[in-house]
Each structure stands twice: as structure tokens, then as C-alpha cells.
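Renewal narrative, Specific Aim 1. Our central claim is that a sequence can be written position by position from structural information alone. The example that follows is taken directly from our test logs and has not been curated for this report. It begins with the C-alpha cells describing the chain, in the order in which they were read.
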């Protein structure tokens, strides 16, 4: 099979190569997927680039990318033969494994290959995994959000864009913050009831007016430390902050413990790879339900060829893209 891979960490253009590797074979409990699209996430580029300062490889050779979509063409022992031919979307393909989805084939645990609803494209499927599941956990870890008022920080990002749509599907009123005009456009298209340009507007005043002074029930946060004081100002007593990022690796945010305790604010720190199995299953179910209801549509920023994987990584790292980047396999 053709695959993009690296055998040492470093800049994308210097370490990512395209080559021929043996086709993977599914082990017991696994399926093999013939991929149509591979989805890129920030963790993929961070791992390749040695974000933690380590140059040590977890495996001698790594095919990157956790997300993808395609068709099951082979199954291992214990997996029903009926799954062969099934259109699927994939999550966490490379978690604890050497080979991810930047290849023509990938072998993964059967449960990590989720049925792709009829009418949903492979491009859409390749966007669902990490961003969709992170957004779902941020919103629904405590149960339903019907009737709640939610702030999604960074509504132009992949997780933020997913969170806006899932929050609306879940019955919430949604405000979001953005920092560029192109982000505002896709946030509105996603269904946000209020879009605030945090660089040009008084975000706290706009959000307080949006809640009629009652405060927010929940914040989905991409910049925990930078936005903590804003979130404290706009959350109602006993509100929730669900955060999945706070800045550069190794950051150590300072938390005003007593002030937060007095407000009764709960904090959830979300890492999709640390989610329990049941949370992954619930997220997969709800993402498919939102797709089938026509309430979830990822924004795709660009599609690259497999031999352009290094360029795709550079685009992801540039910070200038708005939406998901895919590899057409």
C-alpha cells in the first residue's frame, strides 16, 4: 500500500515521506478499512514535530492521523463477515499504535470503525473523530443541555465549529467568540445565535446581554488560562467550564481557587484519548444522529493528495486555516 510515514521526529518537509508498505492484516477483533480520506488534527502534527521536546519515536515507523473514512474490506476473527463492504468513519486509529490513516489501508479495532450514515460523504466522515468527540464530551459530560445557554470559545476552530452545531442539536442557545472575519462567517453558518469578535468588542458585555444578565450555564473553552477571567464574569453560579486546551505544551495555568469555589464553578478538563469507552460510544451515536438529522456539517478548509501530506501538515501548523484539512487517499 502507499502510505505517508516518518521514522524520526522533526519538520514535516524533512521527515514525512511517501512509500510502499505491506498491506496491514486485521488481527482478531479488528477490521481493515480501505481509506478514501484521512483527517488531520493538531495532535498529529504535534506528535510528529516533537511538541514535548522529545525526539524519541514511539515506534520505529509511524503513519500519522487518527481520523478517516472508507470501506471495510476485510475482518479479523470474531468480527461479523457482514461488516465487509460497510461505509465507516474512524476515530483514534493511531492511538497506541504505529499506523494511522495516512495510507491506503488501516487495521483498527472494530469498534473504532463507526457506520457512516447513508447520504453522509466520506469527506464528512473523515472530519468526525477527534473534533466531534471532543466537542461532544465538552457539552454532554454532565447530561443533556436542552434549554441551556452555552458559550463556545473559538467557534471558527474544528472543535468549536463542531460544538456550536452539537449544542444547537442538543437544544441550547449558543454564543461563540471568534477573532477573524472568516471565522465569524462559518460560526454563523454553524448556527450560533451570537457571534462576538473578541478583538473588537466588549465580549463580557455582549455575552451578559445575550443571557439577559442571568449568566451562562456552560463554556466550551479552547484557551483556558487566557479566558478564565472572562468566563468567571459571564458564568452563572454553579456554571461549568469544559476545556480542551490552554496554550503551549507544559503550560501551568494559575487558578484563583477561592474565587472559583465561591462561584461554585465546575471544571472539566477534556482529552479525547482519556475518555472512557462509554463516552466514545455515546459520542459516536450522537454524532451520527446529528448527521442523520441534517444538523451537523463539518467545514473543510482544504483537501490534499497523499503525496502532499507534508504540505498539509505545514498548513495545519500555520494556524491560518479555518476548518478541517483532509488527505484524499
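The sequence written for that structure reads:
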Amino acid at each position: 500500500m502507499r502510505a505517508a510515514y516518518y521514522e524520526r521526529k522533526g519538520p514535516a518537509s524533512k521527515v514525512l515521506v511517501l512509500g510502499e508498505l505491506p498491506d496491514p492484516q486485521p488481527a482478531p477483533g479488528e477490521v481493515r478499512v480501505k481509506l478514501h480520506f484521512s483527517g488531520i488534527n493538531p495532535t498529529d502534527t504535534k506528535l510528529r514535530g516533537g511538541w514535548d521536546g522529545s525526539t524519541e519515536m514511539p515506534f520505529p515507523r509511524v503513519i500519522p492521523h487518527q481520523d478517516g473514512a472508507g470501506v471495510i474490506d476485510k475482518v479479523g476473527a470474531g468480527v461479523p463477515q457482514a461488516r465487509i463492504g460497510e461505509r465507516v468513519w474512524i476515530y483514534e486509529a493511531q492511538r497506541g499504535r504505529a499506523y494511522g490513516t495516512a495510507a491506503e489501508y488501516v487495521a483498527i479495532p472494530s469498534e473504532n470503525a463507526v457506520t457512516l450514515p447513508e447520504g453522509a460523504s466520506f469527506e464528512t466522515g473523515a472530519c468526525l473523530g477527534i473534533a466531534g468527540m471532543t466537542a461532544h464530551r465538552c457539552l454532554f459530560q454532565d447530561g443533556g443541555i436542552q434549554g441551556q445557554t452555552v458559550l463556545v470559545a473559538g467557534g471558527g476552530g474544528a472543535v468549536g465549529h463542531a460544538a456550536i452545531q452539537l449544542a444547537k442539536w442538543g437544544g441550547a442557545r449558543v454564543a461563540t467568540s471568534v477573532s477573524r472575519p472568516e471565522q465569524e462567517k462559518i460560526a454563523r453558518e454553524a448556527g450560533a445565535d451570537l457571534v462576538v469578535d473578541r478583538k473588537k468588542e466588549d465580549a463580557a458585555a455582549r455575552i451578559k446581554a445575550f443571557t439577559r444578565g442571568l449568566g451562562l450555564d456552560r463554556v466550551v473553552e479552547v484557551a483556558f488560562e487566557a479566558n478564565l477571567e472572562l468566563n468567571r464574569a459571564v458564568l452563572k453560579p454553579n456554571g461549568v467550564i469544559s476545556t480542551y486546551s490552554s496554550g503551549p505544551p507544559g503550560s501551568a495555568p494559575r487558578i484563583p481557587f477561592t474565587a472559583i469555589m465561591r462561584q461554585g464553578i465546575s471544571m472539566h478538563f477534556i482529552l479525547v484519548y482519556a475518555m472512557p469507552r462509554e463516552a466514545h460510544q455515546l459520542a459516536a451515536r450522537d454524532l451520527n444522529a446529528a448527521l442523520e438529522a441534517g444538523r451537523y456539517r463539518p467545514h473543510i478548509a482544504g483537501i490534499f493528495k497523499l503525496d502532499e501530506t507534508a504540505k498539509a501538515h505545514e498548513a495545519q501548523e500555520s494556524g491560518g486555516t479555518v476548518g478541517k484539512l483532509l488527505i484524499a487517499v
